[in-house]
Design brief:
The protein is of the alpha/beta class. Helix content is about 35%, strand content about 30%. It is elongated. Bound molecules: adenosine-5'-triphosphate and magnesium ion (MG).
Length: about 325
C-alpha cells in the first residue's frame, strides 16, 4: 500500500520553477530517498509535503488524505526533521520535547513519558537538563529527530539527516533510522550522499534541477550498470596527459574517465583484453602499477543517469564529514 502519492507536483517562485511536475509514491514501511545535488529541489519538495510551503500545482495524498483539503489531518500523521533545527535554544532537551508534544495536544503525563522514552532511545538522557544551545551539532540533530517522533508519526520526513555533523553521530543517526523503520515508521529522506542512499533506502529517486530523472528500487537502479565492467588503473603521475577522445578512437565501445592524477577508470560492456590497454598507457609514458575490477555501485548509476560529475554531489554545505 502506498502511504504517499504525488502527481505532477510543481513549485514556482515567481517565474522560477524549483520543482517541475514530479510524480512518485512511497510505500508504507519503506525508506524512500530523494538523492540530488545542491539546489535540486529536495527541501522544496519536503516543505510542500509537510505543509510548510504552498503547492503551486499538482496533487498529493497522504494515507488517502488530499493535501489541498486535509492538511491538518495529514500533519498529525507526519513528522518533520528540517535541514535546520526548529527547536528552542533556551529550553533544555526534556522541555523541548514536552513543548513539541503539547503542540499535538498530548496530556502532561503522556508528554513526559514520551519525552523520557525518546531521550533514552537517542542516548541523550545525560543532556536532558542542558539548554539546547549548549548541545553539539550531532546532539542537536538527534534531539530534532526525537522531537519529530513525539506524536508517533506514520511517516517521518528527514531533510539531510547527516549533513554537517560528525562521523560518529552520522553513523548513530543512520542506525536509528534503520531501527525506526524496522519498528514500522515509513521514512522519506533527502540526501546528497550517494553512499547514504545506497545504505539506507529501499527505493530512490534521483532529482536534478527540479525533475526526477530516474527512480526505482536499489536493485532496479543497479541493473542500469550491471552489464558494465569497470576497470580501475593506477598509473604513474609522470607522462603524457590522457585524452578520453584518443582513447575512445583507439578502443571504440570503451570509455575512459579520470578519477584523480593517478587513477583512471575504463568502462565497457565488451570483453576486456588487458594487454592492448596496458600498451596504450605505456605509449603515453604512463607506467601501470595496478589494474582491478570495480564492483558497480550506485555512484555509477548516478553518473550514467544524471550526466553529472560525482564532484557535484560531494560539495559540502558546511560542517565536517569524513
Ligand atoms: N523561497 C525561495 N525563493 C526563491 N527561490 C527559492 C526559494 N527556496 C528555494 N529556492 C530555489 O529553489 C531551488 C531548489 O532549492 P531547494 O532548497 O529545494 O534545493 P535542495 O535540493 O534542498 O538543495 P540543498 O542540497 O542545497 O539543500 C534552488 O534553486 C533555490 O535557490
Ligand atoms: Mg535542501
Amino acid at each position: 500500500m502506498n502511504i504517499l502519492e504525488v502527481h505532477d507536483l510543481t513549485k514556482k517562485y515567481g517565474n522560477f520553477s524549483a520543482v517541475k511536475s514530479i510524480s512518485f509514491s512511497v510505500a508504507e514501511g519503506e525508506v524512500f530517498g530523494f538523492l540530488g545535488p545542491n539546489g535540486a529541489g529536495k527541501t522544496t519538495t519536503i516543505n510542500m509535503l509537510c505543509g510548510l510551503a504552498a503547492i503551486t500545482s499538482g496533487s498529493a495524498r497522504l494515507a488517502g488524505l488530499d493535501y489541498h483539503s486535509r492538511l491538518p489531518a495529514i500533519k498529525a500523521q507526519i513528522g518533520i526533521v528540517p535541514d535546520e533545527s526548529n527547536l528552542y535554544d533556551e529550553l533544555n532537551g526534556f522541555e523541548n520535547l514536552c513543548f513539541c508534544a503539547s503542540l499535538y495536544g498530548m496530556g502532561r503525563r503522556e508528554r513526559e513519558k514520551e519525552a523520557r522514552r525518546l531521550l533514552k532511545l537517542f542516548e541523550l538522557e545525560e543532556a536532558a537538563q542542558k539548554p539546547y544551545k549548549h548541545y553539539s551539532k550531532g546532539m542537536k540533530r538527534k534531539l530534532t529527530i526525537a522531537a519529530a517522533l513525539i506524536h508517533r508519526p506514520r511517516l517521518l520526513f528527514l531533510d539531510e539527516p547527516t549533513t554537517g555533523i560528525d562521523v560518529a553521530s552520522a553513523r548513530q543517526i543512520r542506525s536509528l533510522i534503520r531501527e525506526l523503520n524496522a519498528a514500522g515508521t515509513t521514512v522519506f529522506l533527502t540526501t546528497h550522499y550517494i553512499e547514504e542512499a545506497e545504505r539506507l533506502c529501499h527505493r530512490i529517486a534521483f532529482i536534478v534541477e527540479g525533475r526526477i530523472v530516474r527512480s526505482g528500487s536499489l536493485e532496479e537502479l543497479m541493473e542500469t550498470v550491471q552489464r558494465d565492467t569497470v576497470l580501475q588503473f593506477t598509473l604513474s603521475r609522470a607522462g603524457a596527459r590522457l585524452s578520453p577522445g584518443d582513447f575512445h578512437a583507439r578502443f571504440p565501445g570503451f570509455t575512459l574517465e579520470e578519477h584523480g592524477p593517478e587513477t583512471v577508470r575504463i568502462r565497457t560492456t565488451e570483453e576486456i583484453n588487458l594487454y592492448p590497454l596496458v600498451e596504450f598507457f605505456e605509449q603515453q609514458q604512463r607506467k601501470v602499477y595496478e589494474a582491478r575490477v570495480i564492483r558497480p555501485s550506485l555512484e555509477e548509476v548516478f553518473v550514467r543517469v544524471t550526466g553529472l560529475e560525482l564532484e557535484k554531489m560531494k560539495q559540502e554545505k558546511g560542517g565536517c564529514r569524513g
